[in-house]
Design goal:
The protein is α/β, with parallel strands linked by helices. The protein folds into three domains: 253 residues, Carbon-nitrogen hydrolase (Nitrilase/N-carbamoyl-D-aminoacid amidohydrolase, 4-Layer Sandwich); 202 residues, 3-Layer(aba) Sandwich (Rossmann fold); 43 residues. Helix content is 37%, strand content 18%. The protein has 16 helices and 20 strands. The strands form four sheets. The protein has a seven-stranded mixed sheet, covered by helices on one side. Helix 5 packs across helix 6 and helix 8 packs across helix 9. The chain is elongated, with a radius of gyration of 25 Å.
Amino acid sequence: MKIALGQINPTIGDFSGNSQKIIEFARQAHARGASMVLFPELAVCGYPPRDLLEKPAFVARSQQVVCEIAKAVPEITVVCGYVSPAKVETGRSVMNSAAVLRDGKVQFVQSKMLLPTYDVFDEARYFDAATSQQLYPFDGKQLALTICEDAWNDKHFWHRRLYSVDPLDELLHAGGNLVVNISASPFHMGKRELRSKMLETVARDNKVSVLFVNQVGGNDSLVFDGSSHVIAPDGRIVARAKSFEEDLIVFDTETLQGDMHPQLEGDEASVYAALVLGTRDYVRKCGFSKAIIALSGGIDSALTAAIAVDALGAENIIGVGMPSQYSSAGSVDDARQLAANLKIRFELVPIAGIFDSYRKALAPMFAGMPESVAEQNVQSRIRGNIVMAMSNKFGHLVLTTGNKSELGVGYCTLYGDMVGGLGVISDVPKTMVYRLSRYANSIKPVIPQSTIDKPPSAELRPGQLDSDSLPPYEVLDNILEDYIEDYRTAEQIAQDRGYDPKLVRDVIRMIERSEYKRQQAAPGIKITPKAFGFGRRFPIAQKSEI
């Protein structure tokens, strides 16, 4: 038989729009000869719906829409994820379920057993876990129908499993001979490769084909890369959907052949695509169409602008330069050249006069005190006020331009360069910013070479360089990765990296002291295994001794 994988981009809560996508893809699959089409986890409502699940009307609408889909496409069997009510007297009131729609009705429901609570996941907060699962017979096959995490506990793949039970293993031992996994598995660097290796292990060890369909698109801080694929019993990928865009592929269970669509290779290409997709969906799903970016002439704002143009179109971006008396002529020229290269509207709003007015107003209170970071941050806050005024006037979303390295150590200004609706590169370390900028220029040279070559500087005082306050970014990024993603101690980092222990401790101190800033930052797009914000839950007031 032929089975299609419908890799769609749902919007959370858009039941009408999501169901229409499912119906359209199902009809396309039927036209291509498929007898069954698979859709992602919670495709009907979008993932993750979070506290919307606590609204009874939301759950009721999910059930209603599933029945409507079944009636709309009776000619093909549809498997889609939705929210179902839990038939229990205690515990959570809903379940994360997969519905099999056949002959115009809901014929079979399978609910998720393993509810992840690590990283960005918080499913045990909302869902009741299924206590058992059953096989679904279809066209001579016994389908082991699983939902995302239910296939992520293979004892042959993981050194340490998170759960004591393995739903997929139980279904296979009960006679399952075709594995179906519907997922909403978010992207981060290395995730696609990890998924494939894990599912290849399942296929080879059990001599079964594995069909994996994943959500695609951006929902808040999360980007779902799609990358749906089918793995043959010998571990070969025999059908594959595109990454970072909607797609429909068809697989034949007898010939073990299917559509093989190209995927992006390499971290730079996949991260750049994830940032473009995440920006596009965040802006549009939040009801905006245009964006404003402060262009300093530096590499962070240049990369942010390049991503925004690819996400939204040049006609929908406004770049604004806001030079002070400390801004170099070269930086203004670089910002102007970037805007010209990207073909975006560019506005210049000098702030030297505004800054002088602030200093004059503050002079009596600051009398006898040398200028310090206070005056430097005033400049940043003036710029923040200007871009937010433009946002209010024009109805456009402000995109912040700070990177993960700066956000990690607090090298950013609250209510200044941190203001805005989305931190496009806030999970991108500075060293990766340079790699992505070179990648963007390899496609089309838009970022001025002088922007890439010059030393990083906030230009808030004469001759200022980032290196005056921070270690080299190559060193800083290594410390951040070790401490934030791997939870290594200062002593371990210093010993393993060969760094000065005092330097490592100083960086860690900056990380800890900046938590209050990060928790007020705009949401960012997650591209690393451990991003600030969503999925990283640390207290603000603490005294760390480790």
